[in-house]
Write a structure and sequence with these properties.
The protein has 621 residues and is α+β, with helices and mostly antiparallel strands. It folds into 4 domains: 7-225, no CATH class; 264-414, GAD-like domain (Gyrase A, domain 2); 448-554, no CATH class; 561-619. It contains 20 helices and 21 strands. α10 (448-459) packs across α11 (463-471) and α17 (561-574) crosses α19. The longest helix has 24 residues, at 242-265. It is globular. The model has no long low-confidence stretch (mean pLDDT 89).
Length: 621
């Protein structure tokens, strides 16, 4: 994929490690549901009298929202029953610090705005956000990428359950401060998108004031190709999948452009939806979906799509307009649709397809679409699907899409416009004084590349190990436990190799947080067990055992030097002929045997010294 085929921009949202942005609640996720409240939200006009199109789409769903308000992690501010307090000063300093690291220009005065959001994730119906700095620069693969905006905003509530007509959110996450930073549309390959996200993430972590772990950082990627349109994939949480989302979106846009060209070649034009009721035709249809809908009093509605045959689903050319239509239909509350390119299937036999084509008077290039559900819902879903079909005449629609686990994405809502923003009247402006910026600029954190080089040099580990420790966010813990160069090597191997291997083996990593790892390294440093036993100790620690319990259960209590010497002497004596043949070259082959006999009760370095001495003693006799 050449740089002329793709244009991308990134938005990174990173939680800050402070109290909430507009109150004094702690910023931690909890299992407590707390008290509950119910709300319905509706869109409001911007200061120019316009209503945002994305908000209108959300409002049409007519959902009810249930909020869980756990004590200590939420308050009246989160419930929108009390005005917001003054913005958190620490959070503002963190954003200013990060902006200064990218040589950005801070604003003179911070003004918070309200960003209309009525999907229920904010009890107020809007998200508070403020521009903090502008015009930063980020180096990616030797190029300077613009970073035009640095914002401070509040995180949304956490979705915990979705059911028909109602979504339940928990307010523990609502109000956690976020830094939102956006690059310019200057990234041109999938790997460049990933590299930019990695560099921004590592620089944010360098402030030492951001939260860590799954869900604390989210990426939005804006993608377009020549002839296509800007599409935003919102809320990617796994950095490694970013290139895949970009690649699949490029493939999707290319297929939509091909569909556009086919429809134009066939002279397809927009026409009103001719929706009719075909319930009688399907009265005895064996399809479970259709039979279930009819049994509940639903109807089978359908409409022709002249000229659309072969573009709704095509295995050879990967054209899948039908999937796009189904995603639009689902926003109206139905489970899905049927279309001509996928039938006969799903219990709808060829006889039903033939009869339907006859009733609709369809030709070879014509298709149709069906929906079985409650009549009003089915009609709304069909109209949405048909509108999406005719939008294909223009190519790629601008929209926001949700990431799926396989790297694909699904339609969420239209791209929002300027009408979603209006001034926040409850939070006073904040002047950014010169003294504040001087204090921040004279105390900037160590930059990533400098930190990598220092860690490699200071602790005697490989540069690549140091780089991975920093990129994976283990550098702080590493420096805390690496009290000697020997222990540094062990710590690096444990964090970078042992932990991933335990995860691959199915070990529950949730209990192996930094506190647990500190405890294990402290015991290792105090001589409670040998470094060779670290994987076994960690595996038991993950099961809820203390280090002391793990050492006792594994029988790892360190043995005396006399006991160890006796075991080593026994190993050498039993292999006397081999030792006399190999001489000092027997040390390497016998180390594995010795460590097995010692059962992790002696450090490998000490065991090696004992083995050398015993071999020297035998050879000199």
């Amino acid at each position: 994929m050449s740089e002329h085929e793709l244009t991308c921009g990134l938005e990174i949202h990173q939680q800050l490690d402070t109290k909430k942005l507009f109150c004094d609640c702690q910023t931690m996720l909890v299992e407590d549901e707390g008290s509950t409240l119910l709300r319905r939200l509706r869109p409001t006009q911007s200061e120019l009298g316009e209503v945002d199109r994305a908000a209108l789409v959300q409002a049409e769903k007519k959902l009810r929202f249930r909020y869980q308000a756990p004590r200590g992690s939420s308050c009246l501010v989160d419930a929108d029953e009390e005005p917001p307090h003054n913005a958190n000063a620490d959070a503002l300093d963190i954003v200013l610090t990060f902006a200064a690291m990218l040589d950005a220009r801070p604003v003179d005065e911070v003004h918070f705005m309200r960003k209309l959001v009525i999907d229920g994730s904010n009890t107020t119906g809007f998200q508070r956000t403020a521009m903090i700095a502008m015009d930063g620069k980020l180096e990616v693969n030797g190029r300077k990428i613009s970073v035009p905006t640095f914002c401070l905003e509040e995180d949304a509530a956490r979705k915990v359950e979705t059911k028909a007509g109602e979504i339940t959110y928990r307010l523990d996450r609502l109000g956690i401060p976020l830094i939102e930073v956006a690059t310019g549309p200057e990234l041109h390959t999938p790997e460049e998108v990933k590299e930019a996200a990695q560099r921004l993430g590592s620089m944010m972590r360098a402030t030492r004031r951001v939260k860590r772990g799954i869900g604390t950082i989210r990426e939005d990627v804006n993608i377009s190709i020549p002839g296509g349109a800007r599409v935003e994939i919102k809320g990617v949480q796994e950095l490694r999948l970013l290139p895949l989302y970009v690649e699949k979106e490029v493939e999707r846009q290319r297929s939509l452009l091909r569909i556009r060209d086919i429809l134009k070649e066939r002279n397809v034009t927009r026409r009103d939806a001719e929706i009719k009721d075909f319930s009688e035709l399907f009265a005895s249809c064996p399809s479970k979906v259709i039979a279930g809908a009819l049994k509940k009093g639903g109807r089978v509605l359908g409409a022709p799509l002249p000229g659309f045959a072969g573009v709704l689903r095509s295995h050879d050319t990967k054209l899948r307009l039908g999937a796009e239509m189904a995603q639009y239909a689902r926003t109206k509350g139905v489970a899905g649709i049927f279309h001509a390119d996928e039938l006969p299937a799903y219990g709808i036999d060829q006889e039903y397809v033939d009869k339907l084509r006859e009733l609709m008077v369809l030709g070879p290039q014509d298709a149709f679409v069906l929906c079985a559900d409650e009549p009003r819902r089915a009609e709304a879903a069909l109209r949405a699907a048909i509108a999406r079909a005719y939008d294909a005449l223009d190519g790629v629609p601008e929209e926001t899409r949700d990431p799926l686990p396989d790297g694909a994405s699904a339609y969420s809502r239209p791209l929002p416009g300027a009408a979603r923003m209006y001034p926040e009247t409850d939070v006073p402006p904040i002047t950014i004084e010169a003294a504040r910026m001087e204090r921040i600029r004279t105390n900037l954190p160590e930059l990533t590349d400098v930190r990598i080089a220092r860690i490699a040099s200071q602790y005697g580990i490989h540069q690549q190990q140091a780089r991975q420790l920093v990129h994976d966010g283990w550098d702080d813990l590493f420096e805390e436990v690496a009290k000697s160069k020997e222990l540094a090597g062990t710590a690096a191997r444990t964090l970078l190799s042992t932990l991933p291997e335990l995860e691959r083996q199915g070990v529950d990593m949730s209990k192996l947080d930094e506190g647990a790892l500190r405890e294990v390294f402290a015991a290792l440093s105090n001589g409670s067990f040998a470094k060779e036993a670290i994987p076994d100790v960690l595996a038991l620690k993950a099961k809820g055992k203390s280090v002391e319990q793990a050492v006792k259960e594994l029988g790892l209590s360190m043995m005396s030097s006399d006991e160890a010497a006796a075991i080593v002497a026994k190993v050498v004596k039993e292999r006397e002929a081999f030792v006399r043949e190999k001489g000092k070259g027997a040390v390497g082959p016998l180390m594995g045997v010795v460590m097995t006999e010692l059962k992790g009760k002696l450090d490998g370095k000490a065991a090696s010294e004992l083995l050398r001495k015993e071999i020297d003693k035998l050879l000199s006799s």
